Amino acid sequence: MSKVKILVVEDEVIIADNICDALDGLGYKALEPAINYTEAILRIEEEKPDIAILDIQLSGKKTGIDIAKKIKESYNFPFIFLTSNSDAFTVNLAKEVMPPAYLVKPFSKDELYTSIEIALHNFSKKIGEVDTENLIIKDSLFVKDKGSYSKIHFDDILYLKSSHVYIEIVLKSNKKMVVRTSLNDILEKLNDNFVRVHRGFIINTKYLSQITQTSVKILSEEIPIGKKYKEDIVKRINLI
User: Fold this and answer.
1) By the 8 A CB rule, do 200 and 164 touch?
2) Beta-carbon neighbour count of residue 219 at 10 Å?
3) What pTM does this model have?
4) What are phi and psi of 3, to 5 degrees?
5) Fewer CB near the last or first residue (10 Å), C or N of the chain?
C-alpha cells in the first residue's frame, strides 16, 4: 500500500511549490514538479505518477495540452488541467483531450482536493469502479484511507476475504485493508491472476503454493476451497 503519487507541471516555481505543499497536507505524495514538456515526460517515465496536474500555459512551444495528449497516447492515467484562464477558447482547447477535471487559478485547498477526487472517479469509470469509495485504475486498487486515497497494487494482494458487506484485503506486507463492496463486484475488476475459490475468498494465484482436495495455500496461509469453485480453480491451475 502506498500514497497516491501526483505530478505537478507548472512553470511558476512558487505556485508549483504551494501546490505540492497542499498535496502533501492532503495525504498525497507530491513528486518533484516539472516546469515544461520535456521535464514532465522525464518525470513520468522515472516516477510513474498516478495522476498529474497540468498547467495549460507553459514556457516553451509545447503546452499542458500537449502533455495531456502524450499521457493519453502512451501512459493512460488521469490528469487535471490547471489554468488562470477560463475563457471559451482555452476551455475548448482543453475539451479536445477530455480532461477528467479542470481547476482554475486561484483555487483553495478544498477545491484542489475535490478536483483530485473528480479526476480519479471520472477516469475510473472508463475502466470500471468498485464503488464510490474504492476505485480500480489500471493494475491498482485505490482505497479511501483517512480522507485520501491509498494505492494498492494488485501484485501486493495475497487474497481477499468476505465479511458481510465488507471485504478484508490481505497484503504481502501482512497489512490488512477493509473496503465496503462484494467479492463478485471486485472480482470483475481484478486481473486474471485472481480467482474465487470459496464463497468467502478470492486468491491471487501468483502466490499459490499448494492445492489439496479441500484447500489451497497462499504462501503459508491455508484457504478453504468450496465445492462449486473447485473445478474452476483446477482448470486455472492447469493453465498456469
Assistant:
1) no
2) 12
3) 0.70
4) -75, 150
5) C
